[in-house]
Amino acid sequence: MANIIASPSRYIQGRGELKNLAKHTEKLGKRLFVLTSASGRRRVEGLIAESAAGTDTTVLYEDFNGECSMNEVSRVAEKFRASGCDVIVGVGGGKIHDTAKAAAYYAGVPVVIVPTIASTDAPCSALSVLYTDDGVFDRYLFLTANPNIVLVDTAIIAAAPARLLVSGMGDALATYFEARACKASGAANCVGGKTTLAAMQLAKLCYDTLMADGLKAKLAVERKACTRAVENIIEANTYLSGVGFESGGLAAAHAIHNGMTAIPETHQFYHGEKVAFGAIVQLVLENAPVEELEEVVNFCMEVGLPVTLCDLGIREPDRERLMAAARLACADTDTLVNMPFPVSPESVCDAMLAADEIGHFYKGCEC
Question: How many CB atoms sit inside 10 A of residue 224's CB?
Fold first, then answer.
């Protein structure tokens, strides 16, 4: 099996860069089909209009229905085909990105991803995570190409709620540990190859950047400030984690997130918040050194990521319900199979309970 690394064709990051959207997309097409939420449109419409002013680029908006399901992907693809547009632009968060990527894949057209938050590593990948219409994990849809352009306006992201940036840190936190597990097991990464040296270095740089700048960035965006630390964390959450997870591979942390979608109380929490707890569970499964576990748990508490089941709304952990989540996480089609040792639903459930207790220990509270 070959070593393979995947990346978007172009990654653009800078303050105020959305005002240059039309310039960046002109070689892909001149009729932009922008998928976004109603609130997202209010945030970006003026800047996108400014980018198109004085050019022959036109813009058509389509509202996102809220869930990246196969039904929504099909609806968006059909709307695009009827629109006469030639490029899909996904503006918003991870589920909008995944829907835009999948719709562009089925329509056979270029896709541009514009994050307005840095809450997941979805923007750069050739992967869409599909859910049911009710928000339960369905499956991964592997695409044939990464986005043509990922355009990140850091001024917009710094103005978003701090919790969203922190959620992105939770998603990014798992990148190195999952890539490390895949390398140890020899598992294929998300593009069907072995992990490259470059991918492992990006994954490790992602983790190191979180440890160095995560708290500073969180405090800065509490005041809507875009500092160097914020710029670094946006890159870590978006590019380093995006290329790192896809080319490094996924393992326990994301599978445990997927399993926890079967517990309704967790639906109110962001993807990265659940992945962060999944990363702690993975370290428990690995019996990681206490120093490593302490660093991760302390980081999560410092920036406000969950370290207990209670933090994820599960106030009375019931073993039977946790076993249902563990069974879903251990599905043959999910990524727990990439761990370098056999994993069973029972061992995952035990690791979830142990991680919960570790979180309580370090927090020094019952809930």
Answer: 13
